[in-house]
């Protein structure tokens, strides 16, 4: 199917195609740093604008495009429903702000030796950074839009290739070591995912998610649960849920601030999105697995935040809070209700903006204070009062102080946990409150040591922080605060997203309506005797 000119279908592939095309251009023009920067910014602005358009278009129903004109289940479908469009938009804003921030921090490779790397978090090789970053953006968009398990695997592999390069930018021993650990863990999860896809295809004859939603309930319960757990294991590694999160606190803090920010804010959320999508669409009504997820969510919250409390480096502290707050999202998914799913969706949007903003601000702290160790920082509130505010606001938001968006998301989760009323749900309610209090303790301790107390060592005077780094960080902090202002409409959109996501019928009918007659594709298990070949196969 060729999308109608200027119709909503035209917007669907743009968040994938525009960054990919721009990545090729920036690679070809690697000798022209200013041109690379312009292309990257324009590409992400265009992709984000398309995502915003999809938010409104998808509110009337999923917008589906068949790649190559081949309909489901043979062809690959790109599906922009409310959930996918919302994730695309928030990730687009985040990717754009981080890119603008990186333009102020990054320096050409030839200048790397003249830059105080301890202060700027490491020089970014511009020629490599731009095409890799754009490929990462395309991989994220592909993962959110795909309606096919194998294409989701392709999206993860694009992310893996790009993130491995970004983690090791600069080639220091510490970054190569961290990148190697990340690469090994990511490859292990990819192997598990690929094995799960092969087994699912062997059991059902399809990997199209809409068709899987129809076929999986028909297979043996034991086989279905085994396939579900294998997928959850693969996605759990990518989402960094306990006990599969061991790799994250050692991998993320070593990278330059923009890279750490985009990883912390977005990459784990692709794993959470995959869990949410498969649990609600492909494996609904799985009470045993939901109980397992509740236990995992509780362990992720508690172990993660205890790790954060024990840290004395701001980057590592935030890395552990990242792990901990993934537990809140899994909590919402595991409740397996519309209200729980809506709260999880709202919390994902909140956490992407807040966690990314905090890592960008910590990059500024490193620039101004020369370190991220709390033993070496102090008095920054006097030296850089704006920086103190930029850290304080998202830190309180992360802890869930009312009336900020973190508080609203947690109230939604706690309310649904109380309504569920099971012992495990009550344990999660208590665990959520304890985790929030410990998060507040951890971030206030960090703010107090870095900004309020007298520095144990004299912090040398540096040139003022580049405005090109300060303003993108401030914009992202403002975006996080604005989620509180628009919390009503945003939560309403999350409610509608949860309703269609939990329903499943709307998604299935959009992708695979009555045998998929939207294109010329035909399922391999439909013979000429069963159909005249004019439709897309009835699966």
UniProtKB/TrEMBL annotation:
It holds the Pfam family Proton_antipo_M. Residues 519-533 have a biased composition (Polar residues). Its main location: membrane. It is found in: Cell membrane; Membrane. Residues 147-435 form the NADH:quinone oxidoreductase/Mrp antiporter transmembrane domain. Belongs to the CPA3 antiporters (TC 2.A.63) subunit D family. This is Na+/H+ antiporter subunit D.
